[in-house]
């Protein structure tokens, strides 16, 4: 008969052995899992470190590349400045429509090209600096500082006696007047109200105002036609001066209602009206008549064969050009009350029919700039700048009076950076009127 105690002891030993074996397997399982986790963790850390190192290498590479590109672009911009200085100093040697390429410093790494073109009344240039695949481009209008005569408030041709003043007329600055000088008078029973006749120096003028360059609107139009052109049926948006191609709209009567900027031109055989909601910048308009509707604001160069009318509350910014020309019929530029022009007003044509030309500034209008009139100026508004004219003219209840001023305000307080087209009373020193895009 089996011993129960012996049987029980054997069973206990087996249980303990089995427990030890199970614990050993569990420990082995966790050791294997831990070993695999450490390996995975080590691999993950290695990948991350490698990626960080790669990112650092790439960052250093691209930073070095950006620095090189920045240095190249800075050098190209410096070269554009050198090309600009060359144009201001020697651009007169170039013909319109021509290009010239040269190495700035003779080392073969600073190449530039310049092109000259006429944009309205201004000489203009395109600049191109390049180094291998890198390049920089720019374009600008060139102007000239006014000469001593151009800095005067008035230059009145000496062929019709002196200048008569009445009302609240005030003239400040240097003036060039006929030998007869100034005198006071009564207009519509109102005499001269100020203490001095001229608040500045009075000098003697010549018997002829200077003649503008020997060209006409026909000549300008011919030069524009020689440019590469793209003729379109609609104009709107921006047109870059860095392109050689001039975008042109040829039309009859036309109403401009949109934004129009840049290297673009409207050529009309009729009347161009520029709407209140329109905006223009740097464009050229050529038409028989041009009218700016009340409230418009913008700038550009505007050429008429007959009439330009600037309605009230219109603001035309520098360097706006208003130019009217006639050969047989009349030519007129009219600024209505509260109209403001910062720029240039010119009226010209055959010298013999100058009586058919008039620049008329209504009371309350303002010109900050320069006026040239191979004809008459009727100055009821305010002129801050320079007037060169054959004669002044006013229309009163008692009739039309030549070389009379009534309630006119004339001074010369333009900024020293004000530059003009080199057409009359211009110094040889040149500068950038504005950069074009």
TrEMBL record:
Assigned keywords, A-Z: Membrane, Transmembrane, Transmembrane helix
This protein's record includes keyword Transmembrane helix: yes
Transmembrane stretches, start-end: 38-62
Protein name: Uncharacterized protein
Organism listed in the record: Reichenbachiella ulvae
